[in-house]
Design brief:
Blueprint lengths: L7 H19 L5 H11 L4 H29 L3 H17 L6 H14 L4 H24 L5 H27 L8 H22 L8 H23 L7 H16 L8 H15 L6 H37 L1
Helix pairs in contact: 1-2, 1-6, 2-6, 3-4, 3-5, 3-6, 4-5, 5-6, 7-8, 7-9, 7-10, 8-9, 9-12, 10-11, 11-12
Length: 326
């Protein structure tokens, strides 16, 4: 199988490194290559995380510079002074939740150590390199982040297809108990759902506006429904005889195989379940143990299907309302 050597993040990192070095050089900063190193460290997988970690790195690095200046002034430029810096610096990062800045803070300290002098110009140069390097990375993170919408839409369509196939298979078994299904669509749906939830989390983390919860809400609805479908499949396996209620239930699953692709709640499957429950109430008691077991499984299947539809009704109406107000 082939794979891409240069992914999107590599291109972003390259652009950030080069832009940061050119900008640092244009501003007349010493060691412009250090801005490139900081930019490389600043590229992240999502916008929100990139902004958060950039602020942490800048804060940690400024703190590191102040500690380094104080220690080198008091103790001189000795190797053991660097060890003392680590002993003081690292616990403070943990205490103030600035651990993301451990590397950048250490880099700025070693710049001061290598310079072997303490000057205000050196301090300002290091702070400027931090702002240029990490600022460039943050800006590129915000501007150039891959869109997840197309991928999420593909996951949505894939899940709807898998759900539809599962409902068709259930309907066929209820009509013909000899029908054999290998359950592959269940595995496919679970795989698609895991990928969809991860993509939805990335999309939310890449939104700076906040409130972009639509995809996450949709796929969590599907997760609840997939759990319900798994229970339904187990109940269907206990239906080893064809009964009139099973025929009607099969028709409901046929409708559901189409309704699952609709963006709105149709309500026709819910109506079919009401009719089926009425039929159960009007039926005579089972005459054999076999009929009792099958009817019990069918009734449990009805109850599970009601639970599935309740989730669909609640979430689809909520999602539709959110779209109407967006």
């Amino acid at each position: 199988m082939g794979y891409r050597i240069w992914g999107f993040r590599i291109w972003k990192t390259t652009a950030a490194v080069v832009a940061a070095m050119y900008l640092a050089q244009a501003l007349g900063l010493d060691s412009p290559h250090s801005a490139g190193l900081l930019a490389m460290l600043g590229i992240d997988v999502t916008k929100k995380k990139g902004i958060r970690t950039s602020f942490q790195r800048i804060a940690a690095s400024v703190l590191g510079l102040l500690i380094a200046f104080a220690l080198f002034w008091a103790c001189g430029f000795q190797y053991w002074t660097v060890g003392l810096f680590v002993l003081l610096f690292m616990p403070l990062l943990v205490k103030w939740q600035l651990k993301e800045g451990a590397v950048t803070g250490s880099v700025t300290m070693f710049h001061v150590f290598a310079a072997g002098k303490l000057e205000a110009g050196l301090l300002l140069n290091e702070i400027a390199l931090l702002v240029v390097g990490l600022g460039t990375a943050t800006l590129i993170n915000i501007v150039y982040m891959p869109k997840e919408d197309e991928r999420l839409m593909r996951y949505k369509q894939r899940l709807e297809h898998d759900f539809s196939r599962i409902f068709n298979e259930i309907a066929m078994h209820l009509r013909d108990n000899e029908h054999i299904w290998n359950g592959q669509e269940l595995l496919d749906a679970e795989d698609a759902l895991n990928g969809a939830l991860a993509a939805a989390d990335r999309a939310r983390a890449n939104s700076l506006r906040g409130g972009d919860e639509g995809w996450t809400a949709y796929f969590y609805m599907r997760k609840q429904q997939l759990d319900s479908i798994d229970r339904m499949v187990r109940l269907v396996a206990r239906v080893y005889r064809t009964l009139p209620p099973g025929e009607l239930l099969a028709s409901i699953f046929d409708n559901l195989s189409e309704d699952v692709k609709a963006d709105y709640y149709t309500g026709r499957s819910e109506q079919g379940l009401h009719e089926l429950e009425e039929q159960f109430r009007s039926m005579d008691l089972p005459s054999t143990r076999e009929e009792f077991e099958v009817r019990a499984a069918l009734l449990q299947l009805v109850l599970e299907l009601k639970s599935y539809l309740a989730v669909a009704k609640r979430e689809k109406k909520r999602i539709a309302a959110a779209k109407a107000h967006s």
